[in-house]
Amino acid sequence: MSDPILPDDVRDFILGHIDSVAELEALLLLRNYAEQNWTIEAVAKRLYVSEAVAAEALARLAADGLCICSDEFYRYHPSNGEQGITIDRLSEAYAQYLIPITNLVHNKPSRIQKFADAFRFRKDK
Predict the structure, then answer these.
(1) Exposed/middle/buried for 20, CB within 10 Å: 0-12, 13-18, 19+?
(2) Pick the residue with more confidence: 116 or 61?
(3) Helix 98-107 crosses helix 81-96 at what angle (to 10 degrees)?
(4) Cβ–Cβ < 8 Å for 23, 120
């Protein structure tokens, strides 16, 4: 699933942390307004998605250490500086390569599928 257009760190970040375009756009929204606190409702309105979709995206971002949640307010907060640099590079790449990035997100196996596959019995070859 290599894509020569995308830097390896950006591609690996997407594959490891992003499960939907809504999640990607929520991350970039929080990044672009890093000093602002966001409610689920505000993110949903800004991204034109349902509150359920926004809540799921924000919960996954928080679980991955990409944002923090305090008193139902979300704020951009990558767990380390290297992650922040990669997210900055992701933002730049997304502005330039929207279609390849969205295709990568849509074509990657979901976390649920990966989890289910871990329990699949396979015959040794």
Answers:
(1) middle
(2) 61
(3) 110
(4) no
